[in-house]
Amino acid sequence: MKRGEKGMEQGKITREGGHRVWALAVLGLVCIGLEIIVHLYFRTAVGYTHIFYILLVLSALWYHHKALFIAGGLVCATLATSLFVGDLTWATILRVAMFLVITWIVATISEERDRANRELAEKKEEIERKHYALVGYISEAALRMKNPLEMLRDNLTSMRMQLDQGPDIDELKMMLSVQITHLEQIIENFRELNREIIEERDEIPQAFRDFLTR
Amino acid sequence: METQFDITRLGQEKLFLILSSAERLRQNNIRVIKTLIDKGYRVIVITTNQPSAILKKHYAAEGIDMGKVTFIDAITKYAIGRIPEGETGTKFVNSPSNLTDLGIAITEVLNPASGERSCLLFDSISTMLIYLPSIHISKFIHFVTSKLRLLDVPGIFLAVEKGIDPLLLTQLTTYVDDVIDMDRPPGLPEHESKPLGT
Fold first, then answer.
1. How do residues A119-138 score in pLDDT, each as one tens digit?
2. Are A182 and B127 an interchain contact pair (Cβ–Cβ within 8 Å)?
3. Contacts of A95 (CB under 8 A, 6+ apart)
4. In CA terms, which of A84, A85, A121, B48 is 20 to 30 Å from B4?
C-alpha cells in the first residue's frame, strides 16, 4: 500500500473510531435511561433489556473484549436497580449472566475475524511488494538483454561483412573477444534474473532451481 | 537518409544525447567525430563497445586526424585481458563496470593544460547496460554531465534508440540540453526538444 493510500486509510479509521464512540455513548445513555425509566420508575423488569444487546454486540464487534467493561457496567446497573426495586430473582441473575456471555462470544469471534483479515491484508501487501519488485527486476533485465543482444547481432553482422571484404584477422579476433565478453555478461545477467525469480518462488522444485542457476 | 549533426548549437547547448539505430551506431559515431574535429575540437572518445584499436583504424580510414582524438577504452583490457602493444593516446580502464576508474580517467583527460577546446563523446550508454544496472548508469551520466558543465566542456552521449527504457531515457534527457535522433527520416526535424515534464 502506498504512503498516500495508507494516510487516507488511517484518516478513515480515525473518523470511524470517533463515530463509533459517539454511537456507543448514545446507546449507553439510552440503556441507562431505560433502566431508570422502565425498571426503576415503571417497575417492569422484562423486555427493555433486549435493547442492551444492541450496545453489547456493537461494542464487542468494534472493541472486542474491552466490551466486557460495558457489559459489567450494565450488569451492575441492572443488579443495583433490581435490589432497589426488590425484584432480584434467578431470572435477573440469568439475564445479567447472558449480558456477559453474549458479549464474550461476539468479542472472541470478531477478534478472531479481525486477526484473520489483518493477516490476509499483510500477506497480500507482502505478495504485492514482491510482485512489484519482480516486475521491476524483469523489466531491468529485459533492458539489459534485449538491447545488448541487438548490438551483438549488429556487431557480428558487421564482422561478417568484413570477412567478404578481405578480413583483418587480428581485428576480427579482437572484435570476437569483445563479443564473447559481452555475451558472457549477458548470460550472467540472465542467471542473476533466474536467481531472483527462484528466491521469489518457493514452489519451484530443487532440480529446476539448480538447472536455472547453472 | 543523410542528416547533418548541427554542431553550431554546441555554443549554446553543450550536452547532447544522440540516439541512433544499432546498425548505424558506428557510422554515426564517425559522422559526429568528423564534424567535431572539423570544428576544431579535440575529441575524447569513451568506448565501451568497440576496442579503441579498431576504432582508430576506422577513423584513420575515414581520414580523421588521430592527433585530435584521445581514447578512454573500457572494453579492450576486460575483453582480451591485456593492453595491445603500441597503443598511445589511450587510457585503459579495467572494466566498463568500474565506474570509479572510468570517472578518474575522465577527470584526468579533461584537465590537460593544452588550452585546446575539448569535447567528450561517450560510445555508448547502451553497451553500459550490459554491465551495469540502469540506476548506476543514470548516476554516472549525471556525474559526468555535472563535471562537463563545471569545466564548460561539451559532451555527446550515444545510445541505441528503442534500446533504452522510458524511465532511463527521461532521466538522461534531464541531464543533457537536447536529444538528437540521428536516424530520423528526412522531412522531420533532426532534433527533438526535451520531453515535457523533464
1. 999 999 888 887 777 777 77
2. yes
3. A49, A78
4. B48
